[in-house]
Amino acid sequence: MGIKKTHKGYTIDVSLGYDPIAQKQRRIRKSNIKTKAEAEHIASYYKQQYFQNNLVTNLKVTFNQIGDKYFANYTVDQKPTYIRTQKGYYNHRILPYFKETQVSKIEKKDCIKFRDELLNEDVKTRLSSNSINKHMILLKKLFDVAIDDNLIVRNPCIGIKKLKVVKQKMKFWTTSEFKRFISAIDEKDFVDIVFFTTAYLTGMRAGEMLALQWEDIDFGRNEIHVSKTMSRVSGENIVTTPKSTNSNRYITINAKLAGMLKDWKERQESLLSSYLITDLKDITVFQYSINTPIRECFGTKKIKKICKEAELTPIRLHDFRHSHVALLIDNKEEITAIKERMGHASITTTIGTYGHLFPNKQKSMSDKFDDLI
User: Which GO molecular-function terms appear in the entry (predicted)?
Assistant: First the structure.
């Protein structure tokens, strides 16, 4: 540690070891320090930071380099669909804004400005508050990589509050509406009848249904084992484990749905034989051609077409899951049983998502007090 007196005060020249990132010796030089005591204090501070491994590197790393490292090293244990979504956030909005800015130069105000730009986008492309919050979460994760590499000391996203998210009204169908929908499907499209009926009566996620194979259905017990999910990534069908540990579950089915699935299995076997497919072992339950069906085969476009015929207000495919929960609540099923059937990670998820659908028992509770007076 070198401290020298000059005609303008004191200077320090502190050697702080080798910088493995910048690949050169790390030195701190400061001048024009008024007193020797102050110079010693500053030099001691940098030494302390060095021994506590809190010093940032001198290497000028740009934001896009941090992004490359994040997706190369920090997402290896994530599902393909998660990575696809995160890359979408990054490539479409985050990277074009920060580009090749030096990471150490980015401040909290820059992150707030980025968020405000998302808020002020044209109404046609503007993201929801929930989506903007997710962009900011990813941005924070990117700066955490910079902290891990000693490029910055503090994450500039810390202290930026989340935007308030207005919960959208949940859409679901009553039993009568679902029956009208099913009745509008032509018998020749029997696979559609079976698919949407299964969705309505089990509450399975779309990916879980698309990954379903015949070996997953136990007709002796009338039970479906949900152990995988299918997603479309870069033009390929990717089968992975379900959303969470609790999503790996068994779902009981009613006798009529079991009968419908058996009927479809026979029809499927006959249908696929025309494509010279005779072994159903590796075939998915709802496959009706030589290709494995994807979400779009049963998605919004098809639902809207059927709803137009049935004169119904369309809902999304995922809303069949919501409709199933509404049906269970109407049947007065216990919330813990609903949680297990839906494969939620915790009861909090079930209550937070569907709590408002449960009947308000406040009046019946207070009416009982009359018996006490």
Answer: DNA binding
